[in-house]
Structures are given as structure tokens and as C-alpha cells.
Amino acid sequence: MRKFTLFALILALILPLALPFAPVAAQENIVEARLEAYNASLPPAYGNVSVDDLSVEMIEKPDLLILDVRQPEEYAEGHLPGAINIPLRDLAKNLDALPDLNAEIVVYCGSGFRSSIAMTALQILGYTKVRNMKGGYGAWTAEEYTTTTEAFEAARGTVPEIEAELLAAVDAALSGIPQGWGAIKAEDLNIKLIETPPDLLIDVRKVEEVTEQGYIAGAVNWPLEQFMSFAGELPEDRSADIVVYCAAGHRGNMAATMLRILGYTNVINLAGGFGAWSTAGLPVESAAPAAATFDLAGLLDAYISGLPANFNAIRAADLNALLAENPDILLVDVRTADEFEEGHLAGAINVPLIELTDHLDLLPDLNRDMVVYCGSGHRSAIAMTLLNLLGYQNAKSLLGGVKAWTAAELPITTEVVEAQAGTAPQFDPDLLAAVDAYVKAIPAGFYAISADDLNVTLIENPPYLIDVRTSEEVAKGVIEGAAHIELRSFVSQMDQWPADKSQPIVVYCGSGHRSAIAMVAMQLLGYTDVRSLAGGIGAWTAKEYPLVMPVAN
User: What does the DSSP assignment read for 158-220?
Assistant: First the structure.
């Protein structure tokens, strides 16, 4: 079992995070597939809404459904105006009392603990606009907002179409919540850790929280954003004793709910989270880094499947507008020094791609908003991918590079800004070594292949072609002979890659950005002859090379 190490740095990539559900590989297990899709697209602010914001929304949105998941006797003593009551354990049996899956719903309980469980369960079932009122009824009354004892009946309708297996798993998870709602106080957890230690203690906070604040001895760090990527490390025994915690309890409940839906029946969450633990003066371990062995395929799968809709690419016009709003964005030019001297974006620093790992002291802040660029977007897509894997979660790539920037008639300069070196972040040493070895081995040409060269190669010595675009894009035409593996599920479908890791492979997409990401993944996993089509399908069709309709599976 992995204890706290900087291994987790490579998994805390967050995702801008109001994402649509990311596609997942086809799986036999509907429940696991749905949980993986949900985990890849967690809601902004983890689905929380403040009482102040809700008080305004209740005026502005008359169709907003307020759902009280407390017990009937609690509801009868007072509740939010218009709120309907469905006790938490009965929620999955009363979905006919809720509007359709796209209706706006806010859930609350007494403190926010039970309602965070309810919110998570509903989101997993497919309710797309359900949120949790942070702090619960206690926070609402503390602000002296209006309450009532008038009961409001739900308008009953029909239960939405939800996979029976998923609905049954959610119902079992909710109806099986023990007394105390699956919470454990900090003092009680301290005693438990001494007398009857759990089989697994999981900290779901982000890595930076752990490294800055410390952790509870014996915990493993599975950041919530990548929680399901650790499913293979869960105990086989579904009755195993598992304790989860986060900073305040909300994220812990989201993780605990996922575990219960997976069938784990003995899961508890630390009430008040690590904040309650440290406030109680209980012992905290420092988060000193240590070497770790990591699952590279798992890391790549979690990273690629969790990328936002733009795959961390940004267009020239959007970058120009963003720079006007936020001049502190760090611009990193990964071209050679000679190219940089001929002209670059104002304020950019120069870190050539093949020297990237030698100058991470110039990129000391893992959370800094950063845009990487090159001449065409190919090298910067490689650099972005490697930086994201190392933990630079806000690094993006300029689509089309300097070529696109100047084509948009945006200015460049020859004025050089002195780069300010700091202290390079600490990385998992095994990961850093793998990335460093990769960077140092990049050849001239940076693994790109032009449309003209690919056309010749397809005639003389055909490579294995992989199209990583979406199904909708592929339906409009593909390069003849190409296999289709959509980027988001690219690593999870490794069984569709060639068995021979030395076989020539060419990956392509629409522009070259996504295919560069896929190319890096294959190369890091040992494929020795992989290239990306420079400019993608756009460059191919610009040369008037043919596309064919895909062969139906």
C-alpha cells in the first residue's frame, strides 16, 4: 500500500473543473464505469453553494427544488421555505419526487454532512445540476434567514431512466448508512487508530494540502480528483474497515459515497476532516517527500481521461484576451535559443524543450497559470503534457504556436525578459527520472511527420495508423487504414495498441495537439517508433490527400 509520498503530485492535475462527463472505456461493470465517469468530472467547488448565494437564488429561480434530507422529525421542527423532505436513507426509493435529471436541485441537512452524501449519490445517478448547501440548516439559521414549519409535498412524477444495476447500488449505499451517518469524530478516530486500526485510511485532499499541512499517520493519499484511479488498490473484502478524510468532511463524504456504491459496507468519514483533527491537537505527520514506485500507465490514464474539453490547448485570440486580464500568466517558449532571439511573445522566458527538466527552477510554482508555446504547437504540446504529468496543473499549450499568433496579427518582440529562478518543486524521483530521460532523448524533428512524408510512407512502408479524434469527427472521414482509439480512453484501451513496441506507429488528430499527447503516452510506455502527424487532418486535407469513410465495427 502506498503511504504519503510525492507520487500523488503526479495525480493531482486538476482540471479546470467544470467539465462534462469524460468518456470512459467500455466496461462490463456499469457501476464502476459510471463512478469513473463521475470522478473524471467533479463539479465546481465540489458542488457546494453558500447559504448567502442560495438565499438569492431562491428568489431569482422559482423552479429551484430545495431538498431536505433530514429525518421527518427534524424537518417538522423547521426547514427552508418550499423545501420537500426525503430522508437520506430513502432517497433512491423516491426519485419520482424529483424533477428531471437536468433540473436544478439544492440539497441540505443539519450540518452539510448528510446532504453531501445525498448530492454525490444524485450526481452519480445522473442529476447534472444538484448542489449541496454548505453548512446545512445550522448555517442557514445562523444567518437568520427565513424558516417555516409548513410542510411542502413533492409533486410526484416518473423515475428517470437509470441503469437498474446503478440504481440498486446507490440505493444499497444510502439505505445501508449506519447510525451516526457514517461519521466519526476526531477523538474517536484517534482511539480507533490505536486500538483497532482500520484496514485502510485514505486522505483525499490535494497533494499541496498534504505537503503544507501534514497528514494522519498511516494514511495513503488518493486525491479526490483521481480517486477511482486507485480502485485497483482497494481491499478485495467489501467488508473491510475503511476510514476516509479530507479537509473539512465534504470531499471525504464524496469519496466515502463512491466506496459505498462500489459495495464497501464499512466506510466512515472523519467529521470535520483534517481541520477537526488538527484543532483537537491530535498528532500530525509531516509530509516529507520520499521515493515512490508509481503506476505509469495508471497515471497516464488518469491524466488523459481527465483532461478538460479543450485538452489544455488555448487559441491565440483567447490567449491574447487572457493576457490582457491576467498579465501574470507565465509564458514559456520551448523553441531553441536561436528561434527565440528572432522574435517571441512579450514577457516570455525561453526553456528549450530538450532542456526542460534542467530548468524547472524557472518554473517553481506548480499552481502558476502557464502557457507553453513553440513554432507550430507540436513541441509545446509535448512540453505541456510532461509538465502536466509532473504536477503543473495549470500549464496549457498555444495551439498553432508562434505561426498562429503572428497569423492573427498579434505582436512579437525581440526584447528579452530575465527569467527569475527559484527553487524547483520536489517531484517523485522515479517520475522525474522518466520525464528527464524522455526529454533528453527527443530527436531532431521532435517525432513529427509531415503530411507529405506520411503519404509516401503509407505507400512504401505503412505504419500502424491511430486516429485519436472523437467518433463524431471520425464519422466525417479518416485516413485509410487508421484504427480509431479516442484520446480520452486511449490508455485504458492499450489492448488495441500494437503488441510489438518497435512497430512504426503514426498517431493523428484534427490539429496535432491531441495526437502529440497520445504519442508521448505511448513513448513513455516503451513504444520506440511513434510519431505524430504535424498539423493533423487539417494539414492532410490541405494537401488534398484523400479521406475515406470509416469501416463500421
Answer: ------HHHHHHHHHHHHT--GGGGEE-HHHHHHHHHHS--SEEEE-S-HHHHHHH-B-TT-E
